[in-house]
Amino acid sequence: MKAASFDYERPTALPAALGLLARDDGVVRAIAGSQSLGPMLNLRLVQPDLLVDITAVPDLLSIREEAGTLVVGACVTHARLEDGGYPDPTRGVLAAVAGGIAYRAVRNRGTIGGSIAHADPAADWLVAATALGAELVLAGTAGRRTLAMAAFVLGAFETALEPGEIIAEIRIPGLSAEARWGYWKFCRKAGEFAQASAAVLIDPSRGLTRCVIGAASGKPIVMTDPAVLREGGDGRALELLADTAIGQDRYQLRTHSVALRRAIAKAAA
Amino acid sequence: MSAEPHARPVRLVVNGREIAADVAPRTHLADFLREQQLLTGTHLGCEHGVCGACTILIDGEPARSCITFAVACEGRSVTTVEGLDDDELAAELRAAFTAEHGLQCGFCTPGMLVSARDLVLRKLDATDAAIRVEMSGNLCRCTGYVGIVNAIRRVMDARKAKVG
To answer: How do the domains of chain B map onto residue ranges?
Structure first.
């Protein structure tokens, strides 16, 4: 249970970090709070030559509002989002999701960007940020680009990050005053990774209805058909799920459709 | 330790004492504390962030020392259970854990005390159910948790009564 040997750098500026991450003379990995990568290193599931700790880069630590959009630096911890005290156009949604992640000791170190980059299908941010319609600003030595969450996650632990690229910012559109949000996850023990999860955003003034199912063994499943909501997660939702991997397993179908129904009920409450 | 590849100097504060040491990047904070600083109050259970036995404070906030690397603690202040000897709240918790049978073998207790102390500071009004959720990141295989929850309840109630 000890990590294999690796080298470590902790740059204090973004260009220096990107320069190190662009090295091609070995396996180089970015590390932030180490709450996912740490266990994987200890279990020797990952054996990088160099870890680039990006938590000392000030640009990645800010939270700010830009014209109704919350812009969260990749290295902002779950605990910081949980505790509030920042301008919040998401009307408390981020704080509620963050507060349910793992345990406080993990939330104090784990970061939103690290969680999304890790792309564990069961991670809270994958499903929540997808439902919120978040965009990711990716930074590399070649410059910056912006990708929607739905385009960023390609599969389980698989993302659109190019070698040497990191998530710099998560841009989360604000919710209108009439917006409704529901999030529900099924864990056998408080704080463990979800067996099934779902997030629902209904924002009439933006013409938005988005249901997302997480812990789906691959990328989050997005449903925008209004019938999913109208039928409360039965009917149309089950038809749509039938074509996914979840639909092939009765237990999975059951837990995920219950998660969806409960998330819809919360949004409607 | 100098035989380890990539060893690098790290400066941090442990239990109020400034420390400069050479550490291999792969050395997690718990091993650094136990093996280089001989602070064996921090216990290692699962070593992958699940059991909570190794929970310590970094700049006053609970963290898993088994999945935090010592090199990442440059410039930080680390407090282990040994560093809480003279802490007023930790003393109240130790007394309550004793009174309520909040421990049997004691393996989980250092992590329990660190997490419980943080919980009392953050959520003094927590219900028993909330205490259970908040403490769910610390596993105990002896007590069945009843004594632990009661101990935390006792400290919270006493603090609230004192405030008035």
So the answer is: 8-83, 87-163
Architecture of the CATH domain A181-268: 2-Layer Sandwich (3.30)
Residue A264: CB atoms within 10 A of its CB come to 25
Structure tokens at A68: 């109704």
Q: What angle do CA A193, A195, A198 make, to 5 degrees?
A: 100
C-beta of residue A263 within 8 angstroms of C-beta of residue A184: yes
Cβ <8 Å between B28 and A38: yes
Q: Token pair for residue A59?
A: 């640009």
Q: Do B25 and A8 touch (CB under 8 A)?
A: yes
- Residue of chain B with shortest Cα separation from A1: B47
Q: What is the CATH number that goes with domain B8-83?
A: 3.10.20.30
With CA atoms as reference, the chain B residue closest to A52 would be B72
CA–CA min distance A36, chain B (Å)? 8
Chain B, 15 to 74: residues with Cβ < 8 Å from chain A are 24-26, 28, 31, 47-49, 52, 55, 58, 61-64, 66-69, 71-72, 74
Is A105 within 8 Å of B62 (Cβ atoms)?
Answer: yes
The pair of structure tokens assigned to B155 is: 């400290």
What ipTM is given for this predicted complex? Answer: 0.96
CATH fold, domain B87-163, is DNA polymerase; domain 1 (1.10.150)
Q: What is the pTM of this model?
A: 0.96
Q: What is the mean pLDDT of residues B52-76?
A: 98
Task: Say which CATH class A60-173 falls into.
Answer: alpha beta
Listed as ranges, residues in chain A with pLDDT below 70 are none
Across the interface, do B136 and A189 touch by the CB < 8 Å criterion? yes
Token pair 């400290």 is at which residue? B155
Is the pLDDT reported for residue B1 higher than 60? no
Contact B49 A190 (CB under 8 A): no
Considering only the beta carbons, identify the residue of B26, B58, B74 that sits closest to A4: B26
Q: What is the separation of C-alpha A96 from the centre of its chain, rounded to a whole number of angstroms? A: 14
| Interchain proximity A35–B49, CB inside 8 Å | yes
Residues whose CB falls within 8 Å of the CB of residue B22, separated by 6 or more in sequence, listed in order: B1, B2, B7, B8, B9, B10
**Of the candidates B145, B49, B37, B63, the residue with the CA atom closest to the CA atom of residue A3:** B49
How much is the pLDDT for A30? 98
The domains of chain A are located at 7-51, 60-173, 181-268
Q: Do domains B8-83 and B87-163 have the same CATH topology?
A: no
Chain A residues in contact with B69 by the CB 8 A cut-off are 8, 34, 38
Residue B164 has pLDDT above 70, yes or no: no
